[in-house]
């Protein structure tokens, strides 16, 4: 009798245990990072046609990732099996806060999402062009995004809303400093770096876990727009980044990024955290390269434009939950929230069976019991639509990744570290690294927004600059005074 096909997620990732949810101990509560459980329940809940929502403006292209250095001692993932091995990829860049018709040159972080179509399923490295983010807890994400969108009364963007939020979230200062520096307005997508931003994990063939941060360094060189040029370009050509990427690939000028990874054991991170006072899984913090140097991994190249923008770019749906055997997650709270929210957003925005669309479908065989719902063209035919219960003990662990158990500690609760955690040293270090002209640009860019905010909000935000570096606060005050705003 022939063996049934191996059970996988809809993204083609192997599932060894379809009988037991991931829990904290044999009787403990379930974990949100159990993506297989979440995906099954979400799909079941949406087996009738839902509404959908429009996604932000972006650009995309196909390419390939080539392994240049052996990291098999870190990960057993088959895409790293040999130097020279190539894996097909799709990359989507985007502005984060703007609407679909907004200008590519607006001051905004840039999304940098990479899909690797591996033989073990899709790996989605969903990051930004910055190594940190504004918040460290996903419960604040809806509030933060509301401040970046339009005021519900005026329907206008509001600096007052933005800085009201940021000034009461000191952990945001690191990302705010990047956003209002020259790197807040990249000159197109080819001339910026990418980061996985979160802490992820890798698992080798011996079941040993290390924690990692992914870096993608542009070979085209960093190129940014100053504030005046960004505004001018937004009026002349609001699609400048899309045009630049599409035309460059059409000319055969294929953009490339060197892919590297910072690596640390659990023990190293515990020691570093105790020494510095920083949580190594905090998305508002970086791992300094002097403590955790980069290990080269491979080369990413984009070499083919999509044929249809809507089908291949607008309907592309990424999720950081998509990791293949040899990879895993971390206790990063923002990552834990994104493991749920990205797939859930795709279910609403694109549809219940969005993973069957060509740009989202894995390039390897996949088998699951998901059926029906909108766009059920990958319907499974007459195959059995349920999994029988296996005899006791005849199943693997987790999603078949061979990942060791993640030790949990402490009682369940809601923990607020504001006022006790150091949110100023790292943005201060970044500020001190900036050349004099870039410092002046930072002061002027901030003053251009802060000149419009209420006095109480302004004073709160200036206090954060002062704590990062007194020269930071003095520079912003001088730029505000030059604009006619009197500050103490």
UniProtKB/TrEMBL annotation:
Entry keywords, A to Z: Heme, Hydrogen peroxide, Iron, Metal-binding, Oxidoreductase, Peroxidase
Signal peptide start and end residues: none
InterPro entries, per database record: Catalase, Catalase_3, Catalase_AS, Catalase_clade1/3, Catalase_core, Catalase_immune_responsive, Catalase_sf
Pfam families attached to this UniProt entry: Catalase (PF00199), Catalase-rel (PF06628)
Highest taxon, organism lineage: Bacteria
Entry EC number(s): 1.11.1.6
Protein family per UniProt: Belongs to the catalase family.
Role summary: Decomposes hydrogen peroxide into water and oxygen; serves to protect cells from the toxic effects of hydrogen peroxide.
PANTHER family, A to Z: CATALASE
Protein name per Swiss-Prot or TrEMBL: catalase
Originating organism: Massilia agrisoli
């Amino acid at each position: 009798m022939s063996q049934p096909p191996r059970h996988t997620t809809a993204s083609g990732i192997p599932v060894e245990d379809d009988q037991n949810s991931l829990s904290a101990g044999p009787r403990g509560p379930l974990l949100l990072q159990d993506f297989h459980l979440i995906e099954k329940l979400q799909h079941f809940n949406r087996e009738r046609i839902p509404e959908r929502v429009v996604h932000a403006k972006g650009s995309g292209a196909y390419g390939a990732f080539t392994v240049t250095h052996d990291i098999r001692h870190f990960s057993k993932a088959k895409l790293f099996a040999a130097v020279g091995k190539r894996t097909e990829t799709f990359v989507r860049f985007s502005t984060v806060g703007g609407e679909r018709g907004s200008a590519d040159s607006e001051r905004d972080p840039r999304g940098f999402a990479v899909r690797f179509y591996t033989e073990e399923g899709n790996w989605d490295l969903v990051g930004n062009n910055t190594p940190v983010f504004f918040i460290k807890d996903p419960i604040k994400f809806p509030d933060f995004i509301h401040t970046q969108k339009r005021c519900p009364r005026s329907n206008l963007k509001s600096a007052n809303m933005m800085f009201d939020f940021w000034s009461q979230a000191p952990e945001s200062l690191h990302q705010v400093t990047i956003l209002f520096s020259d790197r807040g307005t990249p000159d197109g997508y080819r001339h910026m770096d990418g980061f996985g931003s979160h802490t992820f994990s890798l698992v080798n063939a011996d079941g040993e876990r290390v924690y990692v941060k992914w870096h993608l360094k542009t070979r085209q060189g960093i190129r940014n727009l100053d504030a005046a040029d960004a505004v001018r370009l937004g009026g002349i050509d609001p699609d400048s980044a899309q045009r630049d990427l599409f035309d460059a690939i059409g000319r055969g000028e294929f953009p490339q990024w060197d892919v590297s990874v910072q690596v640390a054991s659990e023990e190293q991170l515990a020691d570093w955290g105790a020494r510095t006072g920083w949580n190594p899984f905090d998305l508002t913090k970086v791992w300094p390269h002097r403590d955790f140097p980069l290990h080269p991994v491979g080369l990413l190249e984009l070499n083919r434009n999509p044929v249809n923008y809507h089908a291949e770019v607008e309907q592309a749906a990424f999720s950081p939950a998509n990791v293949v055997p040899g990879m895993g997650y971390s206790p990063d709270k923002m990552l834990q929230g994104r493991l749920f929210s990205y797939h859930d957003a795709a279910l609403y925005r694109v549809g219940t069976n969005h993973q069957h669309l060509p740009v989202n479908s894995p390039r390897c065989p996949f088998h699951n019991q998901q059926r029906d719902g909108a766009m059920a063209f990958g319907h499974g035919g007459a195959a059995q639509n349920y999994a029988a219960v296996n005899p006791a003990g005849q199943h693997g662990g987790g999603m078949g990744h061979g990942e060791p158990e993640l030790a949990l500690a402490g009682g369940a609760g809601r923990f607020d570290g504001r006022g006790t955690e150091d949110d100023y040293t790292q943005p201060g270090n970044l500020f001190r690294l900036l050349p004099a002209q870039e410092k002046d640009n930072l002061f002027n860019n901030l003053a251009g927004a802060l000149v419009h905010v209420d006095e109480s909000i302004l004073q709160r935000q200036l206090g954060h600059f002062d704590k990062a570096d007194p020269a930071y606060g003095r520079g912003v005050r001088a730029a505000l005074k030059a604009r006619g705003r009197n500050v103490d």
